[in-house]
Amino acid sequence: MSVLVIDTASPTFALAVHDRATPPYVVESAREFSHASLLASVEKQLRGRTLDVVVAVCGPGSYSGLRVGIATAQGLALAQGCALAGLSTLEAVASAHDGLASADVALPLTAIHPAGRGQFAVQEFLGLAPVGPVETRAAGDLAGSGLAGEGAGDLGGVEIRPRERVAAALARYLAGALPRVEELAAIYLREPHITQPRRPFAVAGAEGQSPAG
User: Where does 90-159 sit in CATH, by number?
Assistant: First the structure.
């Protein structure tokens, strides 16, 4: 089975790759990415292999980043005729934390991810099982060893970044814990801020001009 996992919920992206011929491995961008740099990295890592499934981390996270990642995943699935699967950013955090834990029993966890404006997306887990909805909390309301996620290290918790999330998402898929889906949907904490153009454009797309008759 050949699997590609894409995580673009953060300013830096991460990819996990697995196939029959090589052990699973992860690559992560060193700086903020663009659509072009993500596509270039995907092409480099695939090396012409045919995929069986593409898995995407679907948010919460960066609005533009999630759009790019999900569009890339769905485009690859369409082009290669392969399956899709997805999971939330906070599920990926919980999976990564579970992989680091030494306890044999499920432990309570508060998974977090930056949401901008000094806020974090937050969800409570017991092991890998969510036990509450996704909420938004201020950084000042979060602290302690029970936290995990991006930014948790500064709050006394376990820092989990894209590299760990994408590896955990791959492990979950290989374990049969992620069902295949027909389409991926981004998970947003708030509606994206979209404004209408100040002046309408003509049908031809050029301002102040009409299509030729």
Answer: 3.30.420
